[in-house]
Design a protein that fits this description.
single chain, 485 residues, alpha/beta, Rossmann fold, Dihydrodipicolinate Reductase, domain 2, 2 domains, 14 helices, 17 strands, 21% strand, globular, binds nicotinamide-adenine-dinucleotide
Length: 485
């Protein structure tokens, strides 16, 4: 039985940077799928606004091409691309000049939700915000969507927040971290707070440690220049891994509502201890066969930027005192795999004499591939020969378990854009969260700059530098295997 999809209210969505890479790769295909799912109201209007000199026909052709390249479906419920393209319009605007603004204003309708997606570099946020106001296009209820990266340190994040705050209230600003839009991430909250089973064990009495891994097989080719100025710490840890850490570690909010959830996440970030430099391993991938190494792909032969980072983090609060959180992320690793694993304590005492192996329960939440959750449980190995125990996963792969529902399971961008129209900020980062995350990140980066820290080498297609294995071995633990499909 397909899930019931409730259409959102009528809206005008303006995509600044509507001809850019993100719009083509993610935003337009996501909107198309929501159209196919009958979630866009009949009179929804999507307005591309960018520098290119296009008209509606040109923009529709660009969107059709992007959907053919990056979308996955062509029709559903009797709807197809032709109908979607009719919702698209275009206006050529200059964020830094006056061209196109009166035309944009003339296109906006009264009495519908107005949303503005800033899919442009952050240097243009201030100009856009200012002109939206100066031309009377931003109304009191309008929403603003901004993309990562939200600053490159605390100072620049504060500046961006202050720039936006000149023209918009916090309740109007939706800072996207697409990890928060993933089905599994929301399921993590459902599993924690919707079952009686886990929450009593979710603390330092029962949890030995937690691992968060986001492993990629791709390198940095194509975005080397940006990446070399950022590195894995800024590009992945400060935002995506931090958000996952918050959701796994936060106290139960009193309700599933934006303010309550974001208050609890903020408390986690503020309770993070500074990280001991010995508990951080940075790495850079080497060339292998015909695959170029990091420095070549980044176009910087002397680069000290990390394409891999592993770190051990502690949260200074009652619930998590003494429980390490091991985070790792990197490029050109063995497989594309993202997972959060809650590793519970070993059994205090085994009544089974023949069983000498230690056993643990592990709850693993897979973000990709095969989004799903599994719980490792210990059972008796089937057959004769006494009580030998084995550990097996109780697997809940959503694609199998939710057969028939998956066609309406929205991907991250689909869900997040619909949440913007619905006015639901729960899965978006608040300004103070972003600033707190930078306040924790900045001294770590400054520390290795000060020590002139050089990343370790690692082989493309491996688990990362050897030292990252040692980070856990020293504690008598080991990383979970990085497994692809
Ligand atoms: P892009 O360079 O491909 O596109 C930029 C867009 O901005 C174009 O449509 C261009 O016409 C428009 N633009 C530039 N200057 C303008 C001006 N003065 N006036 C009006 N329009 C102007 O960039 P992108 O890759 O689409 O990235 C957009 C934003 O999204 C950036 O902040 C980026 O960091 C972020 N982002 C991108 C991706 C991705 O996969 N591409 C992923 C995450 C975040």
């Amino acid at each position: 039985m397909p899930t019931r999809v409730i259409p959102v209210d009528p809206f005008d969505l303006v995509i600044f940077g509507g001809t850019g890479d993100l719009a083509r790769r993610k935003i337009l295909p996501a909107l198309f799928v929501r159209y196919l799912a009958c979630q866009l109201p009949a009179d929804a209007r999507i307005i591309g606004a960018a520098r290119a000199d296009l008209d509606d026909t040109g923009f529709r052709a660009l969107a059709a091409e992007a959907i053919a390249e990056f979308g996955c479906e062509t029709s559903r419920h009797g709807r197809d691309l032709k109908g979607f393209l009719e919702t698209l319009h275009y206006v050529s605007v200059d964020a830094r000049g006056e061209g196109g603004w009166p035309e944009l204003k003339a296109m906006m309708r009264d009495g519908v939700i107005r949303a503005f997606y800033f899919s442009v570099g952050p240097a243009l946020f201030g100009d856009l915000a200012e002109r939206l106001h100066a031309h009377g296009i931003a109304d009191r209820g309008c929403r603003l969507v901004v993309e990562k990266p939200f600053g490159r340190d605390l100072e620049s994040a504060r500046e961006l927040n202050a720039t936006l705050a000149q023209h918009f209230d916090e309740a109007q600003i939706y800072r996207i971290d697409h990890y928060l839009g993933k089905e599994t991430v929301q399921n993590l909250m459902a599993v924690r707070f919707g079952n009686v089973l886990f929450e009593p064990l979710w603390n330092n009495h029962y949890v030995d440690h937690i691992q968060i891994t986001v492993a990629e097989t791709v390198g940095v080719a194509g975005r080397g220049e940006y990446y070399d100025r950022a590195g894995a710490m800024r590009d992945m840890v400060q935002n995506h891994l931090m958000q996952l850490l918050c959701l796994i570690a936060m106290e139960p909010p009193n309700m599933f509502e934006a303010g309550a959830v974001r208050d609890e996440k903020l408390k986690v970030i503020r309770a993070l201890q500074p990280v001991d430099p010995h508990q951080i391993v940075r790495g850079q991938y080497d060339p292998r066969d015909d695959i170029p190494g990091y420095r070549e792909e980044a176009g910087n032969p002397r680069s000290h930027t990390e394409s891999f980072i592993a770190l051990k983090v502690h949260i200074d609060n009652w619930r998590w005192a003494g429980v390490p959180f091991y985070l790792r992320t990197g490029k050109r690793l063995k497989a594309r795999s993202s997972e959060i694993a809650v590793v519970f304590n070993e059994l205090g005492h085994s009544i089974f004499e023949e069983d000498v192996e230690p056993h643990r329960n592990i709850l693993s939440i897979r973000l990709q591939p095969n989004e799903g959750i599994d719980l490792q449980v210990t059972i008796k190995e089937p057959g004769p020969g006494g009580m030998r125990l084995i550990d097996l996963p109780l697997d809940m792969t959503f694609a199998d378990a939710l057969d028939g529902h998956d066609e309406d399971v929205a991907d991250a961008y689909e869900r997040l854009i619909m949440d913007v129209i619905r006015g639901n900020q729960t899965l978006f980062m608040r300004g103070d969260e972003v600033e707190a995350a930078w306040a924790w990140t900045d001294p770590i980066i400054a520390g290795w700059r000060g020590r002139n820290d050089v990343p370790k080498h690692y082989e493309s297609g491996s688990n990362g530098p050897e030292d990252s294995q040692m980070l856990l071995h020293r504690d008598g633990r080991r990383w979970r295997e990085i497994k692809g499909e």
